[in-house]
Write a structure and sequence with these properties.
Order of helices and strands: EHHEHHEHHEH
Largest sheet: 4 strands, antiparallel
Keywords: ATP-binding, Cytoplasm, Kinase, Magnesium, Metal-binding, Nucleotide metabolism, Nucleotide-binding, Phosphoprotein, Transferase
Protein name: Nucleoside diphosphate kinase
CATH architecture: 2-Layer Sandwich
CATH class: Alpha Beta
Number of helices: 7
Bound molecules: adenosine-3',5'-cyclic-monophosphate
CATH superfamily: Nucleoside diphosphate kinase-like domain
Shape: globular
EC number: 2.7.4.6
Strand order of the largest sheet: 2-3-1-4
Structural class: alpha+beta
Strand content: 15-25%
Family: Belongs to the NDK family.
Helix content: 25-40%
Subunit structure: Homotetramer.
Length: about 140
Amino acid sequence: ATNRTFTMIKPDAVKNGHIGAILQQINEAGFRIVALKYTKLSTEKAGEFYDVHRGRPFYDDLVSFMSSGPIVAAVLEKDNAVADFRTLIGATNPAEAAAGTIRAKYATSIGENAVHGSDSDENAAIESNFHFAGTEVFA
Ligand code: CMP
């Protein structure tokens, strides 16, 4: 069924000039952008977004990195969006990401890994609502 996922182009990929290439790869893979925002997370908002990882050894670095510079947030629509987007971005660790995936091409490290992709339909909705009001989403 057609459904939605949520993504962020992270500060490393923005800083390295990859916004355009990443959005193009997303579009060419058949995803439709239904919401899009260039923004920056405060440490508070980044901490809240990644609350599920609070207490993990990488949490503080993750929050500090994700609030270190601007990001691009987007909601994407496609048949089987969550799973297909995770295939498109590749493994969390770019060293393990399949050739041609967004992380294989643009990620720096497991922490600075270029893009986020929701891991479930439920989280896709939560994460989309975290970044976008209903009036900012256009199907
Ligand atoms: P993301 O999919 O956005 O969600 C959680 C993030 O935590 C993940 O991307 C990684 O960037 C980061 N992360 C996960 N595991 C580690 C790790 N072992 N060390 C550093 N960062 C990690």
